[in-house]
Design a protein that fits this description.
Helix content: 40-55%
Strand order of the largest sheet: 1-2
Number of helices: 6
Number of strands: 2
Strand content: under 5%
Structural class: mainly alpha
Distance between the termini: 62 Å
Largest sheet: 2 strands, antiparallel
Order of helices and strands: HHHEEHHH
Amino acid sequence: MPATKRPADAPSASPNSGANSGANSGANTGANTGASPGARPDASPGASAVAGTAAGASKTFTITELAREFDITPRAIRFYEDVGLLEPARAGRNRVYTHRERTRLKLTLRGKRLGLSLSEIKQLVDMYDSEADTAPQLQAFMEVLRLHRGQLEQQLDDIRVMLAEIAQHEERCRSLLVAAAGKSRRR
């Protein structure tokens, strides 16, 4: 893993200087979903823990293990802590991540892959911790997805219009070049 790899929403200087706070166009963003910025497609979600078992639930992770597993930098993980998406325990000066934090990181990266903003991701990740009925949570998630789909469809329409305009300009340039070539041959 290259040491310089950094997700767009975890900038080197400050959280506000990120170049990609909205739709994460083409970037990956959640391991196991094909997703963190620069994620390995072969990243194994269960490489460090066995989810769903008593042993897997009590397993803890270091920041380095999670960074390696999800192919993101420790700085990106600390950034997600700073914005309130992760809340690791401490053992002295070291961060200790539980299965819960690993799952929250996974959901965060999946949300980034879907192009959701950090505030939308936080809302959805917080639902993960809620013991309330899941129907309202799923309805809220469906609404977020519906709105995001609408935005993407509008962007797709805009791109199609721009591509049609580019094709018109290219055709006009070709015809002008042919006309110019014809004039220079007559001389």
